[in-house]
Design a protein that fits this description.
The chain is built from four helices and six strands; from the N terminus they run ααβαββαβββ. It is an alpha+beta fold. A hairpin with a 2-residue loop joins strand 2 and strand 3. The protein has one domain. Helix content is about 25%, strand content about 30%. It has a six-stranded antiparallel beta sheet with strand order 3-2-1-6-5-4, covered by helices on one side. The longest helix has 15 residues.
Length: about 150
Amino acid sequence: MRWIAIALVTLALAACANPKTTPSTTPVGAIDTLDEARAAWASSGINNYDFTITRQCFCMEEYAGPFAVRVRDGVSTVTRSSDGNEVDPLILNLLPLSAEELFRFAEERQDQASFRVTYDQATGLPLSVWSDPIPEAADDELGIMVSGFTAAP
């Protein structure tokens, strides 16, 4: 009898979960393509959100981040995660700072010689994108990691 009560409570809690505010960080394989990810994002209805982005590159630490990104109605503001100060726009060059820019970042790199992307299974948001246009060349790899995504009211 106790086992049945635990199972019912677990099912009730799972039914109350809100994928808009608690995205999955462990992909389960449901979203595998850019088109599926964009469709999931569009159906999520999320317009206001926050996340942290880190650039993976052979670059100075100040260019790598992490950076705190806040998006409200499509407008991004970025601060340094470590101290909350605004970031020089030159440092943010080529860094995707919204969901649409993250999708475009993945799309622009998907045909490169080496490419990997991981999508959030609840929202479709690209959580990591890594590419290497010329595997034989040094220092041309570029990647981004998104963490701490939270939908905002």
